[in-house]
Amino acid sequence: MSLEFTIPGLDETASEKAIGILQERLSQEQAGALVLKHAHWNVAGPNFIAVHEMLDPQVNEVLAMADETAERIAAMGGSPQGRPDDVLRFRTWPKFEETGRKDALDYLRALDAYYDTWIKADRQAVAELDDLDFVSSNIMQDHVQKLEQFQWFMRSHLID
Amino acid sequence: MSLEFTIPGLDETASEKAIGILQERLSQEQAGALVLKHAHWNVAGPNFIAVHEMLDPQVNEVLAMADETAERIAAMGGSPQGRPDDVLRFRTWPKFEETGRKDALDYLRALDAYYDTWIKADRQAVAELDDLDFVSSNIMQDHVQKLEQFQWFMRSHLID
Amino acid sequence: MSLEFTIPGLDETASEKAIGILQERLSQEQAGALVLKHAHWNVAGPNFIAVHEMLDPQVNEVLAMADETAERIAAMGGSPQGRPDDVLRFRTWPKFEETGRKDALDYLRALDAYYDTWIKADRQAVAELDDLDFVSSNIMQDHVQKLEQFQWFMRSHLID
Amino acid sequence: MSLEFTIPGLDETASEKAIGILQERLSQEQAGALVLKHAHWNVAGPNFIAVHEMLDPQVNEVLAMADETAERIAAMGGSPQGRPDDVLRFRTWPKFEETGRKDALDYLRALDAYYDTWIKADRQAVAELDDLDFVSSNIMQDHVQKLEQFQWFMRSHLID
Amino acid sequence: MSLEFTIPGLDETASEKAIGILQERLSQEQAGALVLKHAHWNVAGPNFIAVHEMLDPQVNEVLAMADETAERIAAMGGSPQGRPDDVLRFRTWPKFEETGRKDALDYLRALDAYYDTWIKADRQAVAELDDLDFVSSNIMQDHVQKLEQFQWFMRSHLID
Amino acid sequence: MSLEFTIPGLDETASEKAIGILQERLSQEQAGALVLKHAHWNVAGPNFIAVHEMLDPQVNEVLAMADETAERIAAMGGSPQGRPDDVLRFRTWPKFEETGRKDALDYLRALDAYYDTWIKADRQAVAELDDLDFVSSNIMQDHVQKLEQFQWFMRSHLID
Amino acid sequence: MSLEFTIPGLDETASEKAIGILQERLSQEQAGALVLKHAHWNVAGPNFIAVHEMLDPQVNEVLAMADETAERIAAMGGSPQGRPDDVLRFRTWPKFEETGRKDALDYLRALDAYYDTWIKADRQAVAELDDLDFVSSNIMQDHVQKLEQFQWFMRSHLID
Amino acid sequence: MSLEFTIPGLDETASEKAIGILQERLSQEQAGALVLKHAHWNVAGPNFIAVHEMLDPQVNEVLAMADETAERIAAMGGSPQGRPDDVLRFRTWPKFEETGRKDALDYLRALDAYYDTWIKADRQAVAELDDLDFVSSNIMQDHVQKLEQFQWFMRSHLID
Amino acid sequence: MSLEFTIPGLDETASEKAIGILQERLSQEQAGALVLKHAHWNVAGPNFIAVHEMLDPQVNEVLAMADETAERIAAMGGSPQGRPDDVLRFRTWPKFEETGRKDALDYLRALDAYYDTWIKADRQAVAELDDLDFVSSNIMQDHVQKLEQFQWFMRSHLID
Amino acid sequence: MSLEFTIPGLDETASEKAIGILQERLSQEQAGALVLKHAHWNVAGPNFIAVHEMLDPQVNEVLAMADETAERIAAMGGSPQGRPDDVLRFRTWPKFEETGRKDALDYLRALDAYYDTWIKADRQAVAELDDLDFVSSNIMQDHVQKLEQFQWFMRSHLID
Amino acid sequence: MSLEFTIPGLDETASEKAIGILQERLSQEQAGALVLKHAHWNVAGPNFIAVHEMLDPQVNEVLAMADETAERIAAMGGSPQGRPDDVLRFRTWPKFEETGRKDALDYLRALDAYYDTWIKADRQAVAELDDLDFVSSNIMQDHVQKLEQFQWFMRSHLID
Amino acid sequence: MSLEFTIPGLDETASEKAIGILQERLSQEQAGALVLKHAHWNVAGPNFIAVHEMLDPQVNEVLAMADETAERIAAMGGSPQGRPDDVLRFRTWPKFEETGRKDALDYLRALDAYYDTWIKADRQAVAELDDLDFVSSNIMQDHVQKLEQFQWFMRSHLID
Question: Is B54 at the interface with chain A, CB within 8 A?
Fold first, then answer.
């Protein structure tokens, strides 16, 4: 990787490491948005409309996260990779296996598990970015905060 | 494919055929949105800000198209497939090969070619849907109309 | 029926036939709005608030459809009949029998059946209007598209 | 009539009487909205656009009144009846006989007469509700206030 | 209690009595807002998101009621007491005992009971204020009307 | 006074009495709006901007009251008198004597006294209208409620 | 008249003359707003709603003019006189004599005549202010421009 | 005519024919907007304000139609001709002969006739475009639908 | 030319002269709007989207200017001529010759020249109107101010 | 305390400690909102309206802080305690003792002292949360930032 | 100074003179915005919040004035100088000497004096621009009008 | 430097150090806003409109940063220095030397260099503030994040 430029005061090595971390987070955010939309379309059962409508703002928030992550990569001198094949190429997390129209609670259970690996990876990224670039770390901290609230929404449906 | 239900007055065979056509269109729309966003992040050169800003509303329009296509599949009794692997699984069109930060006109040239195969496939879908379900056909006709305007925007930059 | 005027380029016989078809659709749309509001007021049970709120935008959309249908009748030189007795006089579909405050899913089941006859009749009207006046047909095609999405919302609650 | 519940501090007999009064008012409000829309579509002559546009906000206000009346019935433990047949079943006022496209002033004259019986019945309901439930009475007092302003609009056109 | 001033035309004794009644209502409204927010945070189960979102506008409406009640006390020459200890000091109604994250229907049942004593006390206040100050009575009548609608929302979930 | 028409269910004598009461209230509201604006322009001193801005919304509210009062007169079959000479002709309250640019607290003191006679007269009107027409009474009750809040604002500045 | 201060660069004599001119214009604008509102309430006949609604924005514009004129007087060091008696005290134009509910065209004819004297006086003021203070002149020029457009609206109804 | 490019899947001959049809429609839409504005400025008589205000949204809608038509020509590879001389050069319909300030009904009569030739030509264009390009046909169908509603507004004033 | 009426205080001869000047300005503004829209549709090259979007607000501003000019003619008692033939009939400036899709800078060069004659003529009109009617002059001064800013936008692209 | 679940990557002990800290902060925020509203109602004197209006946005901001704190507790697997008794039960700071209507500066002095203990406790919480959970710490850091600005507003009034 | 171009109809010498005048005004407007913001941050005492909030809209208005002045210089063919050193280089007025946090009235007194020299210089500029370019003069006349109103706000606080 | 007060829990020495750092950042932000506006006015060439419009939101964001920095200084007990001379007095960075109307890319190159020193200084400030006050550090971290995105916009134009 050769950077176009670096941010004033940040050395190139640190920038490249941070870009590597952010690129993987970008792919997971893009994947997450597709998965949430997939669930938005396929949920069913007595809670259909409530869960269907709950998921859409999450999709929009996650798309905005991906945009912010990608533009940070670019601001650091890198080139964000965001095509469909890139999403799969950088995948280090399990696929989302739920398909077909079925009860909303089934989807929420599967999404809850999906968020588990996502949030863990994001928190790991924050820990690594802390030593490389505080702006990148701040960006990921904000994303984690929102994802943890979304996961709470999902988990709340599953408490009995 | 076994449907959950059919639309009153539409027979199941026609519904299944239409769903098959729409599923492929859905995947291309999801792929198209990723590709346009990828370009949004990577364009550069003297026309950077103008082209960067031109692409974002196109992304949003294409995401709205995908949502409408997927919800039509569901309304017809099918189950839309929208996960990252689904996007690749249903791909019948060439990948978008442009990467790296480079001049906006290079990206516009590549996107122009990408729209060529997209619009052709959408117009083919319209022709086939005309005999199966007028609502599905109307939906795709509206998508084509917008995509052709977006392609005109791209082509306009390349006229000399 | 003697028309006040005809649309330039449309002959009077075709106009009168189209008006007859649209008048019956108008009555069903007015009846449908009343029935949906009746359900909005009477649904109950654990899904009360979600279904109660889902039905209101449908009422508003159906009222807007009735307005568009009626103004098309008038634009074609006819006089739309929209009083309470007119709604019953043009009725060719079964009454909505569900009453009393009861579980939302019971109402959704009854509304699902109500939409069956409504959509079938609208699709029949589209087929007949295609040969008479493309504007009237386009209007009904748009109404069908929305009603089929609303029915999907209802059916989604009933999938298990 | 057996109520689902009663409002804290209101006895069941008073609640049932109030519900009976409100149900008839609900039907007249639903009928009134249909009649005003019917007039909105059929007015003609030199004052067409001004009267056509004046009636639409009245329709919306009357639909909001019906919603408020029906939800009060439900809050008191009753079940509002709002289907097309219900509107006719509870009718205690004369039909609206004006039909066909004709001069706006003719329609305003007929609507003026229609409001006469409506307002009288609403004021009678207020008098009876005063002893049963102040909230129900307040709701109907607000409806009367608006209807009397709307009737003033109509009467103002007829002064010479 | 010595008043700063009295409203023109209202004698001081009546004002003091009305202020006493309003102060207790103010405390219950402040307590009610805290309790509804507490429920908003702790509801769970399959209806989580729908009930969670239904409660927030109620909190805002009740906070607006408390503001109106307190400013009426001040307008009558009194000094509204609104600190945490004041809320408990003026309490004449049972505590809300539900705690912990549990099914939304359990919370709705407890809130339904909480509204019972609240609405009864408000209606009693209206009866007493009628002889003291019509403005204060009108304010409390409007509050009762809204609370009775909110209780209907809660009760509707519990009908089977 | 001979009325153009009467409200359905209201006899002519009661209507004429109510109109007489409302006409005087209308003139005081029009006068009040002029006086408040006069103060808005002439206040000065350390509290200038805060008091200057506090008075403007009061002017707008009072103008809206006058509009409502006048349209009620018209709805009852009367003719509202609203020209400059009419304002003086119906005056039964003391002139506002404060002039010149001077300290805001001086103006607030004078306005406080002006509101005293205004509110007293409005409360007297409510008492008389109660037996004539509940809608007219309700309108004036709402005006009183707002004026008493405005006076509280003024009085609050004068407490030490 | 002794001024509180003068605008930097404007001598006191010119300021006092300009203030005298503006005070009379202020009174006419306040009177004009009352007269237009009076007409708004009393117009009748087949054009009722159209003319009733046309007059309200004129009232608001004229009230804004009066505010601007008064604040200019204050900015020049004067004290604007805006109480009901002030409006009559500075009157140099004929009263508006039209009363009672009657045909809109009768009112438009009377208002047309009222605008004649108003506009003539405003244009005269502009001529005098041109030599005293360009800001005051600009303010009145803008007022004239709007009043001439409003008069055109009125005159347009009277062309046959 | 040599095109810059063609829409993917559309052959050049069909594109050129469609462009020829659309260019004439564009000129009529530009002419129509000028004519409607001309009428907006010159209508007079008792219905002045109502008709004056009714025409302005029509002008805006027709300008938006022209924009859509022109951009379709460009998207198909053509170059829209929109200068004043172009409007006359492509004119195949009669001039609008009404001039001078005169009664609104006279203008509505002349506009009604103007719409007759316009709508007939648009419907003819739709029939021809159906075989050439469904997007161009859809665009013109939407324009026809709106124009027919506008003509209904005009005709409604002329019914007696 | 015989005027319907004159503005109070303006003599008929001056009015007629001013109307003659304004009519020519009106035609140029209508022509200018068509020409700018023509350029909006035909610009191309690397700056396409930026220039395409820059021109649209200019079109809207110029259309608003034409509306203001025409309504001033009417307010002065004249009849504005705004049909397509009128635009050509009053033309005293060179045609806009640029056609076909070509580089945005070519169009900006041609528009810059077009603005030269336009602004010169407008400034000449201001000089003549100064002696006839200050309101007409003010209107044209505002138009000139905006056009000179628009021309600066165009010229800025051409500086190297 | 037994948690419903923990955030992925956070151990249960750290979560419980953080929840304990946040619960006390929640109670202080709820108490603070009540106290600020109490002051909003009771301030008086020459600065009444300015201070009265300054406090309301602070109340809304503090209510939003409490909501965020409580939902963080729930997202971490805890159950936020928000009833009136809970507010007192978790109180570790001095009561607010100011009562009665008195000069705004007296209230600002008392609020300034109240903020002292609040901000100190919040800053202490940030220090402890830093080692437990960065999201919880970030949330409290944002709250501190706003509270310190609000305190600055208060202190600014007290500088002489 | 050599200009890039001149406005059509304006000779180069007049343009250069006007640009010289406008450049100095631009610098004073930029300086004024900094000074007002400086005061916004440093005012204190019992009127803190009211004066703090009054100054912010003035800052925004003055920044908009500077933008308009600078773009006029550019439209006339000049190059506006707006860097920090430019602001001091063109300074012909006394520095603003007030610093430190102190009573709002002290700042208002100092700002009142600052406006004195500013307004005087602006009025002088208007007098000189009148002979050079009416558009530049109009722009400065509008700026003066607003500044004189702002100074009135300041002076109003200082009247006793 | 002697502070008016300190933030609860922050010692005076740390506060004074932080204020010293923030004051220099404030001056650079004020200088930066002037420089960006200077560029906004002077850019030219084929990318004029796109770059001209890109810079304005940056100016507004930087002005908001300066406001936040200054109010933080005040909240910490200091007095922000924001007059034109203060901006120069605290300058530790090179002047912006670009003047005259010239190609946008030339300005972007100069601004890119200007941002280099700005961002480096801001990042240095963050490092120092981390040990003094986390709120001040957070504020500067947010400013850096935005400035780095703005610099990316500039650099993107310069990539070839």
Answer: no
pLDDT at residue I137 above 80? Answer: yes
- What is the residue-averaged pLDDT of chain J? 97
Q: What share of chain F is helix, strand, coil (3-state, %, to 5)?
A: 70, 0, 25
Instruction: Calculate the dihedral angle through the C-alpha atoms of F98, F103, F104, F106, rounding to the nearest 10 degrees.
Output: -50
Cβ–Cβ below 8 Å for J8 and A117 = yes
Identify the CATH number of the domain defined by range L28-157. 1.20.1260.10
G63 and G35 in contact (C-beta within 8 Å)? Answer: no
Q: What is the DSSP string of L39-51?
A: HHHHEESTTHHHH
Cα–Cα distance for residue pair I129/I122, rounded to 1 Å: 10
pLDDT, tens only, G26-76: 999 999 999 999 999 999 999 999 999 999 999 999 999 999 999 999 999
- The answer, yes or no, to whether J and I have at least 3 beta-carbon pairs within 8 Å is no
Model confidence at G1, in pLDDT bands (50, 70, 90)?
A: low
C122 touches C147 (CB < 8 A): yes
Of C115, C116, C148, the CB nearest to B135: C148
β-pair partners for C44: C103
Answer whether F71 touches D (CB < 8 Å): yes
pLDDT at G84: 98
The nearest alpha carbon in chain B to H74 belongs to B152
- Would you say D141 and D129 are in contact if contact means Cβ atoms under 8 Å apart? no
**CB proximity list for E73: less than 8 A, separation 6 or greater:** E19, E22, E23, E26, E79, E80, J41
DSSP reduced 3-state for K77: coil
Alpha helices in chain A (DSSP H): 12-42, 48-75, 84-89, 104-129, 134-158
Q: What is the pLDDT of residue D1?
A: 60
Structural contact between residues E102 and A160, judged by C-beta atoms closer than 8 angstroms:
no
In the predicted model, is pLDDT for residue H1 greater than 80?
A: no
The structure tokens listed for A66 are 């991906």
Select from L60, L79, L97 the residue whose CB has the most chain K CBs within 10 Å, as the one to mutate to test that interface. L79
**J95-114: b (≥16 Cβ within 10 Å) or e:** ebebeebbbbbbbbbbbbbb
Task: Examine the pLDDT at F160 and tell me if it is beyond 80.
Answer: no
Q: Which residues of B touch L104 (CB under 8 A)?
A: 46
Looking only at Cα atoms, what is the longest distance across chain I? Answer: 56
pLDDT band at G160 (very low <50, low <70, confident <90, very high): confident
Mean pLDDT to the nearest integer, L40-66: 98
- What is the Cα–Cα distance from E51 to E62, expressed in whole angstroms? 17
Q: What is the pLDDT of residues K44-57, one digit of tens each?
A: 999 999 999 999 99
pLDDT at residue F75 in the model: 98
User: What does the pLDDT look like over A28-76, one tens digit per residue?
Assistant: 999 999 999 999 999 999 999 999 999 999 999 999 999 999 999 999 9
Strands K43-44 and K102-103: parallel
Q: Cβ contact (<8 Å) for C49 and E51? A: yes
K40 close to K55: Cβ distance less than 8 angstroms: yes
CB B64 within 8 Å of CB B2: no
Chains with at least 3 CB pairs less than 8 angstroms from chain G: D, F, H, I, K
pLDDT at F4: 87
Q: Tell whether D111 lies on the interface with F, counting CB pairs under 8 A.
A: no
Q: What is the pTM of this model?
A: 0.97
Three-state DSSP state, K102: strand
Distance CA B14, CA B7 (A): 11
Confidence of residue L119 (pLDDT cuts 50, 70, 90): very high
Residue B31 Cα, gap to closest chain A Cα (Å): 6
F83 neighbourhood in chain G, CB within 8 Å = 31, 34-35, 38, 95-96, 99
Who contacts H142 (Cβ-Cβ below 8 Å, separation ≥6)? none
For residue B43, list its beta bridge partners: B102
